[in-house]
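Q: Structure tokens for this one, please.
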Amino acid sequence: MGNPLEDSFNFVLDKAELWWASLRDTKGVATRLLNENPTDRLRIRAAASLWFSSAFLSAVVSLPAYSFYGLKLENASFQLSFLTFQYAGLLVFSWFLHRAFLLYKIPSRYVDTLVIYSVVGAALAPLNFIATLPSTFRILGVISAAKGHKAGPLVALGDVFREFNQPSNEVLTVIIAVVMPPVIAISMFAIGAMLRMFALHYSADEWRIVRSFAFAMMVLMPIPFAIIVVAGMSLFYVFVTPA
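A: Here is the predicted structure, written as tokens:
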């Protein structure tokens, strides 16, 4: 019988190695997933495995904020709901990017676009969760307070938006100022690598890829993004511990 502590450590280490590979060599990982998996089903499974590894690490790095408000790692209902919610968002955003490519006469295949987008999303997700921890503390604190006052989810959502129209405290401002620049730099590098991968994979002009990506981000995705944000806030409301 194995050692549970050792098994848990090895599990986390395996997930960390998968994530590090996607961050260190985003292009290589995406190319390998596409070349080594000849069918759409195998490609989706391989990309999902990588993405869920990243999502697990994101959950771990979010523990300082989540556990403070009752969203512990062992809370299976919340973790499963949150993972499903995030993966649904990944599928939706990949689909809109795929549609933008087609509008710009780029011969996109949804599964291939999903795989490449998933690799980049997997690489960036833990870093983004770390960068947004201060904001997450604020969001969960506001929702917890609203829930403690028996306010409904819509009231809590309004409180969150009003909170972010107010200046944050000095400590959070310093933390954000320190953490955000390197995260933004890494994100821009990864997005640039992703766009080059799309250009190579679809044998398309890079400038056309950039324009279609900008069209997806600025025209197609804002409304779905807003819906996903509201749904995420509602999910937090259901599971967060009232103040």
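A few notes: Residues 8 and 42 are 27 Å apart (CA to CA). The longest helix spans residues 170-201.
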